[in-house]
Amino acid sequence: MTSRISSMMGIKSSTNADKNGDVKATNGATANGRPPPVRQGSINRKDVPTAPYKRFWLNEDGSHEHHLKVAKRQEKLSDMFQNLMLGKKKGEAPEDQPLSLMSNWVDVMRNEKEKLAEQKNAVNALPQTLVQKYGKCQEVVGRGAFGIVRVAHKQDPKDSKREQLYAVKEFKQRPGESAKRYQKRLTSEFCISSSMQHPNVITTLDLLQDEKGTYCEVMEYCSGGDLYTLVLAAGQLEVAEADCFFKQLMRGVEYMHEMGVAHRDLKPENLLLTTHGSIKITDFGNGECFRMAWEKEAHMTAGLCGSAPYIAPEEYVDKEFDPRAVDVWACGIIYMAMRTGRHLWRVAQKGEDEFFDRYLEDRKQEEGYRPIEVLRRRQCRNVIYSILDPIPARRLTAHQVLASEWVSEAKVCRAGNEGF
């Protein structure tokens, strides 16, 4: 797995900083004055907006607004939705073994699946196809090994000039995958994602077959692109801008954890944006149900999945761990990427990455770890250190992060609060 935003090599003394010692956001440049790196095979710098525009407004009353440009939909939306199907997934088990989802979860959801089957049969009995319900699928906005994501355009019957957009993800059957496992896989992801109802989690609307018999998942469409593209274009985000996105993210994560679900693959590519600045967590392909509604204790998990820069250190150890702590760790890495435009390290594995090794040593010292120490507020630095605690039992929970002085005081835009 390769780094999607360049690995943090340390902040040099030439870093642009304001009078408070905080990193400044420059027009498309990173802290060392160079343009941010380009992810191979996705975005060319010529595709990044160069004309000056005000994407973030601070109002006199202390509130703020995001004015994000509508992302391109011609071919690739910075591989928007690409990681709905790409990235490191949990290992495939033999046919007689449970899926990567918690073993008994799919069985517990049998009633829900039967309801879905009944709904599907009801839909098939009516003259309603995917096209009739959600419009014609047109431009591709994501492409992976096992399917694509297209934008469906549904014309308003009362106004031919208006249309509703939907994201339609195909579930392609994998080579060698049995029909039974294929249906379990797509139904499991749909059961998790469709049960999430929160302003900062993507809304999943439907699961049905297209005219070719391929199962498709229909979701709300986010026209602002993804957080990765925004960070790449901006170099670094404004402090209040990053704090707003981070607080929205933590709210979504707290909600998921309260619902008994861990994401296991949080990263900027899986955080979609509306043009008004609302964050939406997407891609539950690696999602795990660690606690049923009637259970009080969480089930531990094991296995390595996700994208290397965001994977927590405990995932590299052959032991069970709390999946909630893994999500929180990834949120800390995401925040640092927003503030610096870089990754702190390539892999959080002791002895395998010199920058992670340096972090393990420097976090114990009074001077701290330089890339984190450039953050202006002490309360912010303390929370980030606690989020990125290599010992998961000491790591803050999503609820504790939100209750911290720094995050509780961070202002969220109206779109982020309401999800539009």
Would you write up a description of this structure?
The protein has 420 residues and is α+β, with helices and mostly antiparallel strands. The protein folds into two domains: 220 residues, Transferase(Phosphotransferase), domain 1, CATH 1.10.510.10; 139 residues, Phosphorylase Kinase, domain 1 (2-Layer Sandwich), CATH 3.30.200. It has 13 helices and eleven strands. A hairpin with a 5-residue loop joins strand 6 and strand 7. Helix 6 packs antiparallel against helix 7. It is globular. The chain starts with 55 loop residues before the first strand and ends with a helix. About 20% of the residues have low confidence.
Short description:
By secondary structure, the chain is an alpha+beta fold.
Q: Which fold name fills CATH's third level, the topology of the largest domain? A: Transferase(Phosphotransferase), domain 1
Total helical segments: 13
Q: Find the count of extended strands (DSSP E, 2+ residues).
A: 11
Q: Helix content range of the residues, please?
A: 25-40%
SS content category: alpha+beta
Radius of gyration: 21 Å
Main-sheet strand order equals 3-4-5-7-6
CATH class of the largest domain: Mainly Alpha
CATH 4th-level superfamily of the largest domain: Transferase(Phosphotransferase) domain 1
What is the 3D form? Answer: globular
- What is the element string, with H for helices and E for strands? EEHHHEEEHEEHHEEEEHHHHHHH
Instruction: Label the CATH architecture of the largest domain.
Output: Orthogonal Bundle
Low-confidence stretches: 6-51, 74-88, 91-109, 122-127
Overall mean pLDDT stands at: 81
- Taking the alpha carbons of the first and last residues, their distance comes to 33 Å
Overall structural domain count: 2
Strand percentage lies at: 5-15%
Largest sheet entry: 5 strands, antiparallel
GO biological process, one term: intracellular monoatomic cation homeostasis
Domain Protein kinase: 135-407
Enzyme class: transferase
Binding site for ATP: 169
